[in-house]
């Protein structure tokens, strides 16, 4: 009997870690068309964990272990890797992914394993809308936040808009939300154009837009919603839409994509982040550290990744640990925390992070090889009536 108890005790000890640790899985598209976004997101996540723990990478004495998994931007792989992270790696919390299509495949896995998935930076409204469950929190902005902020920046009486977007969840959700947001501004949408995500020749799409908009009187804008490489903005601008009285407009983007903005000084839109816009201690630290370590300023998704890392640490501290998912949910619903963009808050009803956005005007500046998004005005949380869609 004593030998049986001894064997059982030994087996139990071998199965139990010698010390507790906090296991966070970053499940994101390290390879593929959105690789640049993914790299920024991971760098930001690690900087957020570092900042929130004052460099210790520990929370209340428990070390943080970050497990990386590459979805390759494929929904089935993302779904399998998230299950692997929760089931085999015993990750208490996961962060990611980059693609909205991959995110939608991953949402049921979080519900099945009853563990938190912090969505960053996937944007589609349906993630915190019709496909949402209580284990999903999003630090990234959603399509409606993009849409409402851009509608405020671009809309107005007598304005007519055409849209061009990629034909998947990000593009279609973005256009739907933008159309809804424009309704209160007096602007109208005359034409919608959707193209495959890997489109490189925009001639036919642009011609359809020009034909639909050519005879319309008044102020006319072509609003482009695009993610990844192959942006249509420069190519369509080369087709001279101004001959039809059409101005190109778009939201913010990563620094590499802003090179096309240099051709369009004075263009307006709304952005999620540009490193020179927010004025707060967290962003000051991020800019200083990123310049020091990488020789470049932090980018669009670096700020997002950092916001996710900061949220995770704040939630674990409030919940008294990472092992009790219900305690984490209770801690995170309504939680406010400081980010490079200032204060964010998880809305209790859908766990979407409420956050400021920025109305910008493009400016050409000496020493910068891209169009600089200069702040027109900050759109605070209270300036945007964000729908609850679940």
TrEMBL record:
Give the GO biological process terms.
amino acid transport
Family annotation (Gene3D superfamilies): 3.40.50.2300
Task: Enumerate the UniProt keywords alphabetically.
Answer: Amino-acid transport, Signal, Transport
Name the SUPFAM superfamilies for this protein. Answer: Periplasmic binding protein-like I (SSF53822)
For this UniProt entry, which residues form the secretion signal?
Answer: 1-20
**Any idea where the Leucine-binding protein domain is?**
21-363
State a single Pfam family of this protein: Peripla_BP_6
As for family, the record states: Belongs to the leucine-binding protein family.
Which named protein is this? ABC transporter substrate-binding protein
